[in-house]
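U., I forgot to send this yesterday:
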Amino acid sequence: LRFLLRNVTLRFDKEPIISRSILYRAAFYLRHIYLVFRYNSELTSINWPPKVTEIPGECFYQCPNLRFEIPNNITKIGRFAFNGSKTITNLTIPPFVEEIEEQAFGSCTNLNSIILPEALTNIGNNAFDNTSIKELTIPSSTQIIGNHIVANCQNLKVIYWNTTADMPELFYSW
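Result:
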């Protein structure tokens, strides 16, 4: 199915006129359509429709050539969402994102800097592990911070801990 979508633009801005049985089947497949993009080295860009507020887990997992900008209406970035992207270098997470799940940006080895929003309340395990970030500022609003969020970040020099959240195990202890 991945190769069938190579030159197709998915549009979500018009209401379809279809029968109820087709709608039920379509709803099932749309819940899982994000899996189509995993491991896709030919995917280079994506434009999210305005009504989408969550980037599903594994949506762009191991899509090394994807260039993107996260829309301002996003509130949650799912687990492994952009894991393995090689094109991300500098990233500003939009202001309304409240949750970044586990491994969302893990193994984005060219990621040098990331700016987290004040709305962020939850950072999942290994969210930024194996990246090239040099510093990380944890917003004061962050209440839950997973383990190993910066494990294997060889260039990391400083973490600004602006939260009262408990400090997890940030690095692997061997």
